[in-house]
Write a structure and sequence with these properties.
By secondary structure, this protein is an all-alpha fold. Helix content is about 80%, strand content about 0%.
Length: about 575
């Protein structure tokens, strides 16, 4: 074996890792985060967590990435430790899919159909299709599919390079003597742990092992402890990611490590004891990529079956390993930056927080308007705290969304990020106007002033219109309901006309001596806040509509809807004008 074979080996490994990363990232974008988003709605049913963990890992091709994602979710308070345990177990099953894909490289047949299944036979065509999509496709989703295809082709090319570089080893007596050392199961276990810890991917080290098996120098018995060691070594990624997180997130890593160590200790001991008694015939058979995939799958499934009933005990063990120590209060992590590694999930969580902003702003406005008739300092203090919460949400969400927008996103997720960036400011400003109304209510209460009967009646109509428009807007945004969004703009136009009319009437009352200048300032402040709230509601609704229709000029869209909305806009406008008609 020459130095050039070593160069080829490392070059093949580089292609392999790059291809796996490219394919994994492309698959994650094609999925659009749909699988990961389910984690945000995780139930307490363990079997669902198991299936989700397996499914998500099969898609993104990395159990380490899933565990890092879980660390971020638990650290952010989005998921509980107990929910993450069975997901970790499922991820160990899902990661075996890579070994089965790579096992196709070992196919050897003269039959055309069978030979076509060999990756080296069809991966050039996959690469061609992938590069054509990357160069010619206009939609990001098509480009992402092209990335997946290119990643797969590069991965398989790397696998082939590694196999070719090891061919001379098959005839080397020194290599045969070296491989004898791996008959020691503890050495195989250590090699599996160290190699995977260095590469930080059990899928990659399984691929290396499968490439090495093509030399014929490995027996099935040698591969068993190496494969088991790989499951322990892959924990290094989660261990690194747990630095600087809270105790609950650290316990996720503790579960991952303990799960793999316990499973390895039990099954390796059982295998060695039973093999020493019955002397398994398959142990001495030459390993192949297929047999390695079989061993990898059986071990991971067996470990999950063994420990699944003890998921609660694993949580207790993790709690004992990571004890409750006195921690300095740093506040709750809003959105952990680790979630940026899985953009689909990060987008979904940002959407949930923005939905919460929408609901909170609607509730704040309703409670603020209620204070105009029945002021309570306790309720006013609560609204002040809620407004600060909205400010924090806007600040942290805005920062996180800017970071997220720098990642490669699917078309759907990119549109969602654009929507959120445009709307968080509107919801925060609605909270500000609600707080302005609270201050006005406090002024009315402190100065013991009162509007005339006619002004009260007009304000009540205006308040009802504002409460309806904020309710329509919050529901349209939270449920992405374009039908409701279409109702917002006609009502906003009615509110604008109503505010102008109330101001005109106020001037008439002021001229007639039926109102004071002081009350006029208070009324003007209220009407200004009502009008600004309706404007922000219009912004949110238009944003929902324009993203849905793939339009990016909000002002143009709004003008077209008003001018060309036709029967729908006119009918809705007339309906709201009649419903919220000012008293004569």
């Amino acid at each position: 074996m020459s130095i050039f074979n070593i160069f080829t080996l490392f070059g093949g490994l580089a292609f392999f890792l790059f291809g796996m990363s490219t394919m994994s990232n492309g698959l994650e974008r094609v999925a659009g985060g749909k699988l990961e988003r389910i984690l945000g709605k995780m139930t307490d049913k363990p079997i669902k967590g198991l299936l989700l963990g397996a499914g998500i890992t099969a898609v993104i091709q990395s159990s380490s990435a899933v565990t890092v994602m879980l660390v971020g979710l638990v650290n952010s308070g989005i998921m509980k430790l107990t929910q993450s345990i069975t997901v970790i177990m499922g991820s160990n099953i899902g990661t075996t899919i890579t070994a089965w894909i790579l096992s196709l490289a070992g196919i050897d047949s003269d039959n055309f159909i069978v030979s076509l299944l060999k990756p080296s036979s069809f991966s050039p065509l996959v690469a061609l299709g992938g590069i054509l999509l990357l160069m010619l496709a206009k939609k990001n989703r098509s480009k992402d599919i092209g990335s997946v295809m290119m990643g797969f082709a590069v991965l398989m090319y790397g696998m082939e390079l590694m196999s070719d570089s090891m061919d001379p080893l098959a005839e080397s007596p020194q290599f045969a003597e070296f491989m004898v050392m791996f008959k020691n199961p503890l050495l195989g276990l250590v090699v599996g742990i160290v190699l995977t810890a260095v590469v930080q991917s059990s899928s990659a080290t399984v691929g290396i092992l499968q490439a090495l098996s093509m030399t014929g120098g490995l027996s099935v018995g040698m591969t068993v402890p190496i494969i088991m060691g790989q499951n322990i070594g892959t924990c290094i990624t989660a261990l690194i990611s747990s630095i600087g997180v809270n105790k609950h997130a650290k316990r996720v890593t503790a579960v991952h490590i303990s799960f793999n160590i316990i499973g390895t200790a039990i099954w390796l001991s059982a295998y060695l004891i039973i093999d020493s008694i019955f002397n398994f015939a398959f142990s001495s058979i030459a390993a192949t990529p297929f047999s390695i995939a079989v061993v990898h799958t059986i071990f991971n499934i067996a470990t999950t079956v063994l420990l699944f009933p003890f998921s609660k005990q694993l949580g207790i063990l993790a709690t004992k390993l990571v004890k409750d120590k006195a921690e300095k209060s740093k506040g709750t992590t809003f959105l952990d930056d680790r979630l940026l590694a899985t953009p689909g999930l990060a987008v979904a969580q940002c959407r949930e927080y923005t939905n919460e902003m929408a609901r909170l702003s609607a509730v704040m406005l309703q409670e603020a308007i209620a204070l105009l008739d029945n002021y309570s300092q306790k309720k006013a203090d609560k609204l002040i705290a809620d407004e600060q919460k909205l400010d924090d949400y806007e600040d942290k969400l805005g920062t996180f969304l800017v970071k997220l927008s720098g990642n490669q996103l699917s078309d759907e997720d990119s549109n969602t990020v654009s929507t959120l960036l445009h709307t968080i400011g509107d919801f925060e400003r609605i909270g500000d106007h609600a707080l302005n109304i609270v201050n006005t209510a406090a002024e009315i209460n402190t100065k013991e002033i009162s509007f005339s009967a006619s002004a009260k009646a007009e304000l009540k109509v205006a308040a009802n219109a504002i409460l309806e428009i904020i309710s329509l807007t919050a529901d349209a945004f939270c449920f992405n309901n374009t039908s409701l969004a279409l109702e917002v703009e006609p009502l906003e136009q009615v509110i604008d006309d109503m505010v102008d009319e109330i101001k005109r009437r106020h001037i008439a009352r002021l001229t007639g001596g039926n109102c004071t200048i002081e009350l006029g300032f208070v009324l003007s402040d209220l009407l200004t806040n009502f009008e600004r709230v309706s404007d922000h509601c219009s912004n949110v609704a238009v944003c929902v509509l324009r993203i849905h229709d793939s339009v990016f000029d909000a002002h143009e869209y709004l003008n077209n809807y008003k001018n060309e909305g036709g029967e729908h806009f006119t009918k809705a406008f007339k309906g709201y004008a009649k419903k919220h008609r000012l008293p004569e």
